[in-house]
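We were asked to recover a plausible sequence for a given structure. The inputs and outputs are reproduced exactly as logged, with field labels preserved.

PROBLEM: sequence recovery
POSITIONS: 93
GIVEN STRUCTURE:
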């Protein structure tokens, strides 16, 4: 093999690696996480040693300690934010 052919082959391999790396990063960028439905702040469905509660308004899972609590009809409900709490109150009353 002549040196020119080697150069072509090396360039082809490098181009292939670049395409592969770009493809992989794009794939991970657009791949759905598929673990949580809704936009959980923090992104993880479970926090070590803490219970997650579902916001009945938007479906987000929030840790009990940082959730907005509200008692309705004798039941304690947890919301991700004050906004969701108010919205839920308005929709159910
Ligand atoms: Zn919410």
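RECOVERED SEQUENCE:
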């Amino acid at each position: 093999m002549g040196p020119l052919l080697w150069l072509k082959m090396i360039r082809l391999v490098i181009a292939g690696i670049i395409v592969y790396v770009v493809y992989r990063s794009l794939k991970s960028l657009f791949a759905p996480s598929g673990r949580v439905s809704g936009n959980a702040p923090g992104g993880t469905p479970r926090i070590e040693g803490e219970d997650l509660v579902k916001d009945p308004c938007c479906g987000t899972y929030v840790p009990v300690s940082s959730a907005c609590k509200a008692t309705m009809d004798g039941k304690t409900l947890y919301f991700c934010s004050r906004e969701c709490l108010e919205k839920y109150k308005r929709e159910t009353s």
